[in-house]
Each structure stands twice: as C-alpha cells, then as structure tokens.
Specification:
heterodimer, A: 197 residues, alpha+beta, B: 203 residues, mainly alpha, two-stranded antiparallel sheet, 8 helices, 64% helix
Chain lengths: 197, 203
C-alpha cells in the first residue's frame, strides 16, 4: 500500500512540475515563435503576393474573429487605398496539410494571388506547388466567390502534372479562402477603414 | 565507481559510440543526415536532452519507485525534448524547419531511455553528466560524419553550417549520386560505415 501511494505521488508531482515548466516556457517563447514564423515562412510569400504595396503588410496586420478561430489578416495598401488583404488557409495535400497564403482585393472580390507557405509534399512532384510560380499564378484574377477546381474536376486550374492530389488540395484551400472571405467581409471592411490614409 | 570520469566520457566517443557501436537511435540517424548541418543540429539537440535527463534522473534515482521508473524517465525526457523544440522554434527556426518532425521524435530515441536505464539510474550526478556528454558528443559526431558522406556523394557539395557551403568538390563534371540523399542511401551508407568501424575496431 505504501508503495502504491509513493508511486502515485511521485508520478503526479513529476507530471505537474513538467506541465508547469512547459507552460511557462511556452508563454515565454510564444511571441518570438510567432515572429519567426511570420518573418521566415509567411513573410516571403506575403511580400511576393503584395508586391508594390506602399506599406509593410507584416506590420499592418489585425486579427479577425471567425467563429471560434482568430485569423491573422495582413493588409496591403496600394495607391493609398488599403484594399488588399491576405490571410492563410490550409488544404489537404498528398503528405500532410498544405498552407496557402491568399491575397484578395476587397473592392473587386478577386484573388490577386496565392502562394504556398508550408507543405511536406514530394520533392519534384507536389513540392512544385511552392517552387513553380506558374501554378499559383493561375489563381490571379479569379473571383473569390465561386469554388475553385482543377480542370480534371471541371474547374479552371491546370493541375501540376503528376501531382493531382496536391493541386486539388491547393484548390480546396483557395475555395475555403473564398468562403471565409465572404463570411468575414463585413468585419474586414470595418477594420480596413482604420488603415486608409 | 571503478571507472574514472574521463573513461565515462571517452567511452561515448569510440567504445560505445552511438549509433555505430550501440546501434541505437537509428530513426534520426537515417532520417536527418542529408547534410552536416542537419546532423550537427540533431546531434546537439539530442545531446542536450541526454545530459539534462541524465542529470535529473540520477538526482531522482533514489526517489523514483522502481515499478514506475520507465514512466518517470519518459516524463523527464519528453519535458526536455519539448523544451528543445520550443527553444529551437524561437531561436533557430530554419533549423527547426529542416529537422521538422524528428525533433519531437527524440522522445522515442532509444539512446535516451537506454542511458537513463543503464547508466543514470545507477550512478551519481557527475558521472551521469560525463556519460551524457560523451554519448551525446559521439552521437553528434556520428551524425555529422554520416551527413558529410551522404551530402558529398548525393549532391557534390558540402553544407557545413548556415551558408558555409563548399561547392563542386569533385569538379563541375560530377553527376550527383541522388540516391544517397534518400532513405535507401542512408541505410547503405550507415551499413558501410558500420562495416568500416568493425574492421578498424578489430585490430
């Protein structure tokens, strides 16, 4: 009996100490990790999508509540008007989730571009979704209101050869982006007013 | 304690060098050693966890009840692995991206549990530190060596550390042996290195 109690006490104390330490460390590093992700993973894609913006989209960002999730919205100011927003969505790729940064023009409700941020697709096949700019360039100018599909499924996006699953995942992500955009548009427009100069 | 501290330390560098002698911890060995940089990063992360968990486990060895010792070791190891993961994400994000899922997988690296069970649970703190440092350093060196061989043969260049790259080791006409940077190449390379180690070790 004494053994039993000792076992329970030792394991409980050890687990709670471990939990406490990790929670403290997580809190301590959270902001830095978010900055690192912003600068090294999302940053390059955002800058490429919002080329020509007169502001720094990484600095001009705000959070929007979409149901239970908070979404990071990046603002692009073109010709003095903050009419482009960018945010990230995920789709199911071949190996795991594919992160897609989408940029949408709020005035015209059209995609102005999309770029893959994170993925673990097969090098040379699905990975070209990120490395081949011609693939994601197809999203440019498409309306952010209708579902997007690959041509095989009757859509308008030419799939990467040999990587239909990845291409479908990216299209599904873009479709989700369009749905989210329609859902949060009123909030976006209200927030964007703060950025006009 | 029959062995001196120096012996505890140096045994990890040759006599019991992982993964070549202990043949433990093969998952990261095969998975990440495509460049020297990845090998070093993985090795150092493992060495840190190893030393830290060795210290804590040898300190707690009289308190931990033997029936639940494995569970306690895993809690200690998993905690330090998560610490490494968070710190790497915060301060060395590019390295974290290239090591990816192999960082959380350090938890199931047999070297850690093996050293906790076979050494730290029976020896004092100082000896455990020496053991952890030795084994950790040996593991780092092995991964770096394996990474170097695969990197040179597989791509014709050598990535030592951030941006320090030696290009065209075999001249411009070298056609990269791409197979070496994939998983089967890792097995073959590890097998050949084990074989060389055994031939050298026998003499």
């Amino acid at each position: 009996m004494k053994d039993m109690i000792k076992m329970i006490v030792v394991l409980t104390v050890l687990s709670s100490l471990s939990g406490g330490l990790l929670a403290a460390l997580r809190d301590g590093t959270k902001d830095r990790i978010e900055m690192q992700e912003l600068n090294l993973v999302k940053g390059p894609v955002i800058h490429q999508l919002l080329k020509g913006a007169t502001n720094d989209p990484l600095k001009d960002r705000f959070k929007v509540k979409d149901g239970d999730v908070e979404r990071n919205i990046f603002v692009g100011v073109f010709d003095g008007k903050p009419d482009v927003i960018a945010f990230e969505v995920t789709g199911k790729g071949f190996a795991s989730d594919v992160g897609l940064m989408t940029a949408i023009n709020v005035d015209t409700d059209k995609f102005i571009g999309a770029g893959v941020t994170t993925h673990s697709e097969t090098p040379g096949l699905g990975a070209r979704a990120k490395s081949d700019p011609n693939f994601t360039a197809q999203f440019k100018g498409l309306p952010a209101s209708a579902p997007l599909k690959v041509t095989k499924d009757g859509g308008q996006i030419n799939a990467l050869s040999g990587a239909t699953i990845t291409s479908r995942g990216v299209c599904a992500a873009a479709t989700e982006a369009a749905t989210i955009y329609q859902r949060i548009k009123p909030q976006l427009i209200a927030k964007l007013k703060d950025y006009s100069k | 304690m029959a062995k001196s501290l120096a012996q505890e330390f140096t045994k990890g560098l040759w006599k019991e060098i992982p993964p070549f002698r202990l043949v433990l911890g093969l998952c990261p060995t095969l998975g990440v050693t495509t460049t020297v940089e990845n090998g070093l990063g993985m090795g150092m992360a493992t060495a840190f966890v190893l030393v830290a968990s060795n210290i804590l486990i040898s300190m707690l060895r009289k308190i931990i009840p033997s029936k639940v010792r494995i569970a306690c070791y895993i809690i200690v190891i998993a905690t330090f692995v998560t610490v490494v993961e968070l710190l790497m994400k915060a301060f060395a994000y590019p390295l974290y991206l290239s090591l990816g899922v192999f960082i959380p997988l350090i938890v199931v690296n047999c070297i850690l549990l093996g050293r906790a069970e076979a050494f730290a649970a029976k020896n004092g703190v100082v000896a455990s530190i020496a053991d952890g440092l030795g084994i950790g350093l040996g593991f780092t060196l092995s991964l770096a060596a394996l990474g170097a061989v695969r990197n040179i043969l597989g791509t014709g260049e050598l990535t030592i550390w951030k941006g320090v790259v030696i290009h065209h080791i075999f001249g411009l006409s070298y056609h990269p042996f791409a197979f070496m940077v994939q998983a089967p190449g890792a097995f073959i390379c590890l097998g050949l290195m084990l074989c060389i180690m055994n031939i050298v070790g026998k003499k």
